[in-house]
Amino acid sequence: MSHPIHILLAEDEEIIAIIIQDLLGAQGYQVTTCNDGLAAWNQLQAAPKTYDVVLLDRGLPGLDGMEVLRRIKAEPALAHIPVIMETAQGDQDSIREGLSQGAYYYLTKPFQPDVMVAVVKAALQQGQELREMVDSVRRSERPLALMYNGAFRFRDLEESRLLANYLARTCPEPGRAIQGLQELLINAVEHGNLGISYEEKGDLVLQGTWQDEVQRRLHLPEYCERYVEVRFERGDESLRFTIQDQGEGFAWTDYLEFSPDRAFDLHGRGIAMASKLSLDKVEYQGQGNVVVATVNLLN
Hints:
Blueprint: E1 6-10, H1 14-26, E2 30-34, H2 37-46, E3 53-57, H3 65-74, E4 83-87, H4 92-101, E5 105-108, H5 113-139, E6 149-154, H6 157-168, H7 174-193, H8 198-207, H9 210-218, E7 228-234, E8 238-244, H10 270-278, E9 281-285, E10 290-296
Parallel strand pairs: 1-2, 1-3, 3-4, 4-5
Antiparallel strand pairs: 6-7, 7-8, 8-10, 9-10
Helix pairs in contact: 2-3, 3-4, 5-7, 6-7, 7-10
């Protein structure tokens, strides 16, 4: 990011707020603090383009953290901002509710300073990638709104991102659709064709070798000729994207919902995000190597 990183911290416990502000300030981040939910919401409304991340306590006075989160995700000018929720690890219902509303990052109390900094950095990276995707789509013309059907094949992650960008332009809200399409296309490559399991990806991400392993497997004899096929169809009321990989499938039912058990993992929310927040319907078929995504056309 070329501009100074600005974080809004909504925390009503003064000592905790001071500690967090000092830790993030040491990273070079600018931190604005609020001690209740209504003040945080007013601050966001007053400066919607200012903040790169919101760090939000669940139990705020005024408006509680969950209500502030709902308002953020319902406001188009703010919905792109990553929200990190502070919560107790055993509070499964709150975690589930927060995930369903779009809080992809969690910190548990009491938190470890190095973990907090790592989570903030992950949220910043996710926010930057989303902004770049949305900006790319917005800058492009949309002749694809005239396309009624098409078929595509691709192999790797770079091609999946290019194709997601391209297909999103067929949608009435490209900025909403692009992240969900990209998540499904990437999943078809890494978990489908290349057979990288959920546990393996978690280890690879922690080790910083995920991209290297993807490239390695793309060149192995058992994977090098596999591709993902995407079919696009425009109907009277919706767009239909059928994505088919050449893998053996996976237990997709576990990933269509936001799970509190995976809330503290560094990955694993993409399919649920696509299903709940980005696309209007996501339906896996058979053994899980075919997924149909639907985007409704606006009246």
